[in-house]
Amino acid sequence: MRRGAVAVALVLVLVACGGGADDEGPVDSGGVPTTSSTASEPTVTGAPAEGPTPTDSTSGDAVSPAPSTTEDVVTSPTVTTEFGNPYSPVDGSTTTTTEAPWDGLTMPLTGEPAPDGWPERPALVVKVGNNDWRSLPQLGLEAADIVYEVMVENFVTRFNAVFHSELPATVRPVRSARSSDIDLVANLDRPMFAYWGSNEGVADEVRGAERLGVLVARSTIGRGQEHFSRDESRRAPYNGTVDPAGVLGSMDEYGMAPGPLFTYGPPADSAVPTAGVRWTTANRDVVFAWDADLGRWVRYQDGVPHLDAGGEPFAADNVLKLTVGYRKSDADWTSPQLLSTGSGDGWLFRDGTVTGVVWSRQFVADGWSILDDDTGERIHLDTGSTWVLMTRLGEGEILDASEVGELTD
To answer: For the whole model, what pTM was predicted?
Structure first.
């Protein structure tokens, strides 16, 4: 720390402590900006910054902008220097310190600090079932960096769970692949894709993707099949499991770690407070509700909390609702195929706020471009896990506190 900065910090400490003569040592300074302000519907261009107050998309209630802050202030009975030595303040007084943001290496799929470096392994994508109550509870899904929720036949959903920063011991239930999966995971720098079989048309598509170097596939037939098994305590086909470490170890050599798919940083100026988001299809109702105590979005499915195998609710630090297209699969006309390239609108939910966004992804190898739908500026996600809802036009709604209360009370 430069001498001038030390002097300024010392003055601040003296003021905070009442100017006691025994106070010594510099204060380590920093700050984490958090801002909130306005948002818009995904299909309607957002209101300008000085326009009328936005309203909730379903209730018509006015949405008030959240106050901005410039640093995360923590009350502490001691002052810590940049060398980590505590200095005791005057009795009965307190000081304020700020934690400097991490500026080192970060995990590519969460933005979280990686002081020991990235794991030396490729991303692992597991196709996880979510057809109905017989798929529950899922095991290992809570460890995913990113979960893509995609509509399948009969208007229910399945998950493409992306693991990199952490590997669970087991993932269950592993289900069959779909045409949607290949393009969706192609921007993970040749990931391992684990699934429980498929029809022959999808199998041909997966083999073609392998020949092009898009992914490495493992299933219940062929190399690596010994890492798949059945959980005899459950009924097939809802009991398929995979050993993530084992299936990754079946590769001759590890490929590269994935690059970032999103950018991470402070919330947008256009973010406004909100209580939750709902995605409803003919046979599925998904809600993510903001839990201020957890500081995360807690998931509800079909009207009840969606719990993991340990009885804890699934939750995410970010929920990204993207408006996308679906068409009939070339491999199976009864199955919808996600169109994950192109562009569209949507919402980003983070830190108890929502921001209207425009997404784009020109090629399957590209990451996701997420821009503010009002200003065109890049939108940053919060560090941590992300749940991506792949919704059709008109299937999403922003929830106010009373609507979330009806679900959670």
So the answer is: 0.77
